[in-house]
Structure prediction request, 629 residues.
Amino acid sequence: MTETFHQFVVHRSPALSRAAYLLTGDHQLAEDLLQNALARTYRHWRRIHGGDPEAYVRRVMYHQQVSWWRRRRFAERLESQPTDRAGDDHSDATALRLSLAVALRQLTPRQRAVVVLRFYEDLTESQVAEVLGCSVGTVKRHSHDAVRRLRAIAPDLVDRTAQRSPR
Amino acid sequence: MTARLREVLHTAAADVPAYPVYEQALASARRHRRRTVLAAGAALVLVAVAGLVLPLAGTPAVDRAAGADAALPDRVGVPPFGSLHATDWPRLGPASVIFTGQAPGLMYGDEGSIITLVGADADRYRIIKGEIEAQAGGDTVLSPDGRLVAFRSVGLAPRVEIVDLVTGRSRTVSSGVPGTVLTGPAGWSPDGRALIVWDTVPANPERSAYRQMLSIVWLDGERRTRLADESEGLAWPAFAPDGARLAFQTGRTVTVTELDGRRLSSFTLAPETELAGKGAWSTDGRALTVTRRDGDSWSLRRVDPATGRDLGAIDTPAVSGVTAIRLLGWAADGSAWVVAYQPAPDAPGAFNAPLEMDQRLAYGNVGSVRVLALRRGAEAPTTLLTAPQDVVSIDVSNDVIHSGRTRDASPPHGVGPRFWYWGVLITVLVAGIAAYRNREGLALWLHNRRTRQARRLGGRSS
Prediction:
């Protein structure tokens, strides 16, 4: 059983890490989020390994991310060092990631989850509603609010025209 | 319109490394499992502890040896704070003594009485919450075998409550007297199957006068027989040893009846004499005992139950310096066991002058009680049991009286099991609430501790 779980983690942790990072906007928080989700998955592995464990992990991650517990728990966490520093790498990708991370932090956890599910995971609104356990209307509202907010904070992340416009 | 956002998200995610979380996830899962097992174990321990001190359903085995070794403790004490209730587990079993009073620890609420019960053969204490100024031996009576306690039920409806000290079950009975405003038990039949119950009933619609009624209630089916309907106060019914006759006093008159209510005789008491108490009948059932006061001194005399004729004094020592004495019964050695009511230091009454018996036993007039043995031919009473100040009434089971056994007692002190149970429960609850309210700090502390440990381990391995 452990080997199977190990294989699952080895094979799927890159994709899961990416989703976790987008959800949190912070490497250390993302690592914690993924670790907790995998720990929970391991506890229930006997029951879920025959189905779609990856979907289970993602669902746990999304739920943990929007839960008040994690929000409060990590909102006040003290960091001894910044986990991303622009000075380390001046590449466009890093700049973009930092810009995105800052923008995502301005969203509510649920808005961020909807953004990731809709625009990164490419789920339909109905699928997002199912994953988050809310109505399609709620997903639409969060999606609309999130995009509007991102557009206000960092228009170049949302619209190509904004990216091209002079600052 | 959101193609740019999709592109940005994928670009940003592309550089994210796969986090090395496998080992930590396993450790976290195992830690969670260990905590779950520990929490389940703690819950089991709590349940087990609760089972020791909380009332639980079910009937435990009766401790027959306790009844066989029943003895009178040589002293009683105020029950500790947090004492078990009579219905708590483990059950008390038959009691030897019950008492009430107004000392701290013997009252609850504004004026409620705590009835204290002492185990038949050991200093196991239990309590029952009773009505205001409950009087052991008066309106709170212990059955002859010490198994049942009857007392005025707490509440607006006038009822008598009976607690079985072996099963922990409680039931209420009523006399069935219509319009009663106050009811209470007055005594048990020798076999414990019938209870004498008194009632106070308004004599007129204006409630300017009241009647006192006495009934027998058979507990198997609650059959009832009316014994008396008088305008004067009733006191201390006494069953003959064969259980077939009953004597009771109303005003200055003693009446002897059969259990179906048929009156056998009635006579007027001489001045300053009273029917002696629940042990008034002689052991052969041929005589009734009365107490007689001469100034400050109380003695026992015999009277003919058919005529009331004085049969002379009993050769037992007199008791002095008390508000009254009450005859509990006769021990195997022929001595009379009596309750001696010591006057309260600041009692307003003058007890060497005529005074109603209910005043002699009133909470305000009694400072403490003792159980004395009045042995035949002895010059002075022998003290069998002492009680703390402000214990104002006491009753002893007939089995203990007849056995004549006494034992050295060591009343419990400190705090009782209920205190510990509630103390632990409240502490756990408060700790849980505190942990919940500080969950963020706790989570942060745990997280930082784990991080430090991981760094330390990482530092060692490198």
The longest helix of chain B spans residues 22-53. Residues 55-62 of chain B have pLDDT under 50 and may be disordered. Chain B touches chain A through 33 residues (CB under 8 Å).
